[in-house]
Every structure is written in structure tokens, then in C-alpha cells.
């Protein structure tokens, strides 16, 4: 195909110097993801302060544990939406890079149809599968009750999440990352404000406890969806939005899933890993599950900006892959690796030095607090490897090889992590050493990721000229 039959200057992804482009695109995404990290943590933070009653002792610990048990399903929903979004992002950005407006518009229309299909699937799980899922991880009746009430609301009312993540990706694919950030901010701020209102009961609203955290979350998600949809309709002038563009096109859906399918599986592995760790940690103690939940929410302050950076890398690499710009592809990969290394090393230093202080934000028992501090100090040893893995996975996806990304994720999340955790959980000091499974898995995956990325880069760009 002749890629030079259109002016790539129409889009800054094809002309702006890569370091400046990466910063301009990544900065709003990273800020958006930082807010998302705050969004993720406030539910667990607030419910840890739910007061004990005559019938419930350590209510805060049980509430945090319940949200930890629900979290794998939330991660699975995110995996469906963002994994598909990776495929949409790569396909749509590449079509724009090739100058094919009609193809890009059809991709956007089919993305909306897929988000509606996901909502129906999640709704059915919310109605019929939540009880069995939560009870498979705990025998504590109070923890189970908390988890079921929270997760049922989240799943039955998931249209806000699936809709927002669709429109967010459409904005990111066209380079409008500030708009996607605005949509994220609207929902995150809404949730942060409403959480204490619904959990503890203010302004005439009865205290709803754990269920209140879910209500605040879904209201925030719908606010994000409405904002992102409005910005898409207003700003995405590169795309035609006629209803016929939403007619399911299995050729286009196939293109989306060539990259998006492995990305869904790849991101779903986080859900599988979390569920697996919940089961393994449950053999140690329920406090270990609570500690894991605290760690997972705190680490999102470091990982979410890295994911935001990855979300900037994918469309930049994809666009320049479509436009046959070999030099810019290489520059984008190295810029991403440089920035993510700074993020991860900074995060490691902060969490190593201030682990006790940040865990102290949660009002949980002394045992759960000590375990969470131990987890943070050990798991952060693998953060640099994890950041490199995130960027290299994105590079493989953007270059059209989602399978390599899947291999990297399998190593990180399943093949190394879970067996290592299980073996460490058999030791007498399991509650102290089980956390080493994380850095072991990240370091192992990083070595393989480097080899795979070099391989796919060379094969995809060997016939490209190096443009000055």
C-alpha cells in the first residue's frame, strides 16, 4: 500500500518532534490516571472507617477485604473495555495515519456497539453470578455480605463504565488526550465527593456503608460517560458519526480483535492473578487479603501514570507505523521507556521510605497494617521491571503483535507469579515472604519482553525507509 498519498501533517502524531509529542499526549493521560488512582483508592479508604457495631467487629477490615474480593471482577470489566480499546486505538490510529477516514469512522461506530454488548454481558453476571463468585473466596458471612452488595451494584449499573471507556479510547485514538482527561476528571471528582455522602450518610441520605461506595462509584462512571460522549461528538471531527457507521462490520471487528483480543486476555490476567492471590492469601489469613487490597490500591498511584504513558505510546507508534515512519517509531519506544523508568524509580523510592505513613491512611487492625507495610516494601523492588514491561507490551500491540504482549503478561501474572506465590505460601514465614512473588515475576518477564520487542520491531520496520 502506498502510505505517502496523503499529507501526514494533518495530524501532529506524524509531524511533532517525538519527545514533545510524547509529553504533550502523555501528560494529560498521566494526570487523568493519577486521578483514576485516587478514584480507585477512595472506596477502600473510606470503607476502612466504617464503625464497628454490636454485631460486627473489625468492620473496616472486613469492608476492605470485601472490596478486595470484588476487585478481580472490576479488573475483568476494565480488561474487556480497555483491551478492546487497545485494538480500537491501534486500528483507528493506523487508519488515520493511512488517510482512510471512512475506515476510521466505521471502527469508531463498531466500538460503540461493542461497548453496549459488554454491558449486557456484565449485567447478566451481576444478576446471576455475584453470590457464587464472592462466596468462592471467603467463608466469613459479613465479608461475603459486604462484597455481594458492593459488586452487584457495580455490575448491574456498569453501562457508565463501558460507555466511558469506549468514548475515552475514541478521543485518545485521535490524539485528544486532554478531552479524555476531562472525562476522567469529571467522574473521579464526582465519586470522591459522593463517597462519604453515601457511605456515612449526609444531607438527609441514609448511611449505606459498603453499598454506598458502589452507588457513588456508578454515579461517577455515568458522569464520565456523559462528558466523554459530549466531547467526542464535539471534538472528533476526523470521524463521521452517521448511524450507518454503527452497523456491525465483522471485518472491522476482526481487525479490532486481532490486537484487542490478546490485549483483553492480557489485561484479564490481572483479574485472574488477583483472584488467585486472594485464594492463596486466604490460606494464610484474612488480614493478608486486607493487606493485599491496601497494597493494590496504593500501587495504583505509581502504575496508573505508567498506563497513561502507555496509552500515549500506542497511538503514536501505531500512527507512525501506518505512515511508515521508522525513525519516529523507534524514538517513541525509547521515549516511553525513559519516562516510565523515571516514574517507577521515583515511586519505588517514595513507597520504600514512606510505606508506614501511606498504609496509615487506612483505619485497619495492627496486623493488617504490618502486613501491608511488608508487602509494599517487598513488591516495590520489582517496579522498574514492571514499568518497562508495560511500555514494551504497548509497543508490541501498536506494531500489530498482540500475541507477544500476551506472552509477557502471562509470564508476569500467571506463569511465574502464581506458582511462586503458592510455593512461598507453604513456608513457615509465608505472611512475610509471599510478596516476593511479584518482583520475581516482573524481572523474569522483563528479560523476555526485551527480546520479543526487538524481534517484532525489526520484522515490522525492516522494509521501511528511515525518514529524516
Features of the shown structure:
single chain; 468 residues; mainly alpha; globular; disordered N terminus
Largest sheet: none
What would the principal axes of the Cα set say about the shape? globular
How large is the radius of gyration?
A: 22 Å
Low-confidence stretches: 1-9
Distance between the termini: 21 Å
How big a fraction of the residues is strand?
under 5%
Provide the residue-averaged pLDDT: 84
Determine the fraction of residues in helical runs and give it as a percent range: over 70%
- Quickly count the helices: 18
The ordered string of helix (H) and strand (E) elements is HHHHHHHHHHHHHHHHHH
Query: Quick one: how many beta strands?
Result: 0
Please specify the SSE layout and strand pairing.
Layout: H1 18-47, H2 59-97, H3 101-128, H4 130-135, H5 141-156, H6 159-173, H7 177-201, H8 210-235, H9 250-282, H10 286-322, H11 326-353, H12 355-359, H13 366-379, H14 383-398, H15 402-415, H16 417-425, H17 430-433, H18 437-461
Helix pairs in contact: 1-2, 1-7, 1-8, 1-10, 2-3, 2-5, 2-6, 2-9, 2-10, 3-5, 3-6, 5-8, 6-7, 6-8, 7-8, 9-10, 9-15, 9-16, 10-11, 10-13, 10-14, 11-14, 14-15, 14-18, 15-18, 16-18
Amino acid at each position: 500500500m502506498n502510505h505517502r498519498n496523503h499529507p501526514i501533517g494533518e495530524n501532529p502524531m506524524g509531524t511533532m518532534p517525538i519527545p514533545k509529542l510524547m509529553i504533550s499526549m502523555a501528560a494529560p493521560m498521566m494526570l487523568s490516571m493519577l486521578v483514576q488512582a485516587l478514584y480507585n483508592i477512595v472506596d477502600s479508604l473510606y470503607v476502612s472507617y466504617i464503625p464497628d457495631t454490636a454485631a460486627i467487629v473489625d468492620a473496616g477490615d472486613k469492608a476492605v477485604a470485601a472490596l478486595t474480593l470484588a476487585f478481580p471482577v472490576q479488573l475483568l470489566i476494565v480488561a474487556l473495555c480497555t483491551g478492546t480499546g487497545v485494538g480500537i486505538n491501534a486500528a483507528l490510529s493506523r487508519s488515520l495515519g493511512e488517510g482512510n477516514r471512512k475506515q476510521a469512522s466505521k471502527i469508531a461506530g463498531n466500538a460503540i456497539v461493542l461497548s453496549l454488548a459488554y454491558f449486557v454481558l456484565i449485567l447478566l453476571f451481576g444478576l446471576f453470578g455475584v453470590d457464587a463468585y464472592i462466596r468462592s473466596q471467603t467463608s466469613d458471612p459479613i465479608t461475603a455480605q459486604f462484597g455481594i452488595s458492593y459488586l452487584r451494584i457495580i455490575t448491574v449499573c456498569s453501562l457508565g463504565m463501558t460507555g466511558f471507556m469506549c468514548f475515552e479510547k475514541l478521543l485518545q485514538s485521535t490524539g485528544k488526550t486532554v478531552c479524555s482527561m476531562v472525562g476522567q476528571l469529571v467522574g473521579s471528582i464526582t465519586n470522591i465527593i459522593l463517597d462519604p455522602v453515601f457511605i456515612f450518610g449526609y444531607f438527609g441520605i441514609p448511611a449505606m456503608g459498603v453499598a454506598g461506595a458502589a452507588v457513588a462509584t456508578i454515579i461517577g462512571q455515568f458522569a464520565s460517560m456523559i462528558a466523554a460522549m459530549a466531547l467526542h461528538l464535539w471534538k472528533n471531527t476526523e470521524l463521521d458519526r452517521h448511524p450507518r457507521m454503527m452497523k456491525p462490520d465483522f471485518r472491522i471487528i476482526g481487525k479490532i480483535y486481532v490486537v484487542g483480543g490478546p490485549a483483553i486476555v492480557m489485561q484479564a490476567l490481572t483479574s485472574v492473578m488477583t483472584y488467585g492471590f486472594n485464594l492463596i492469601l486466604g490460606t494464610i489469613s484474612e488480614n493478608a487479603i486486607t493487606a493485599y487490597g491496601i497494597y493494590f490500591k496504593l500501587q495504583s498511584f505509581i502504575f496508573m501514570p505508567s498506563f497513561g504513558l502507555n496509552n500515549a505510546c500506542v497511538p503514536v507508534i501505531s500512527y507512525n507505523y501506518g505512515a511508515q515512519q521508522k525513525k519516529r517509531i523507534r524514538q517513541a519506544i525509547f521515549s516511553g521507556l525513559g519516562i516510565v523508568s523515571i516514574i517507577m524509580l521515583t515511586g519505588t523510592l517514595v513507597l520504600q521510605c514512606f510505606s508506614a505513613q501511606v498504609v496509615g491512611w487506612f483505619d485497619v487492625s495492627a496486623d493488617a497494617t504490618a502486613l501491608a507495610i511488608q508487602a509494599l516494601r517487598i513488591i516495590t523492588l520489582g517496579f522498574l521491571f514492571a514499568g518497562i514491561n508495560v511500555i514494551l507490551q504497548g509497543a508490541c500491540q501498536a506494531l500489530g503483535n498482540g500475541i507477544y504482549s500476551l506472552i509477557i503478561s502471562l509470564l508476569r501474572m500467571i506463569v511465574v507469579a502464581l506458582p511462586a506465590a503458592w510455593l512461598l505460601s507453604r513456608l513457615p514465614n509465608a505472611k512475610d515472604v509471599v510478596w516476593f512473588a511479584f518482583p520475581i515475576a516482573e524481572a523474569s518477564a522483563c528479560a523476555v519482553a526485551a527480546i520479543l520487542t526487538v524481534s517484532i520491531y525489526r520484522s515490522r520496520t525492516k522494509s521501511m525507509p528511515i525518514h529524516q
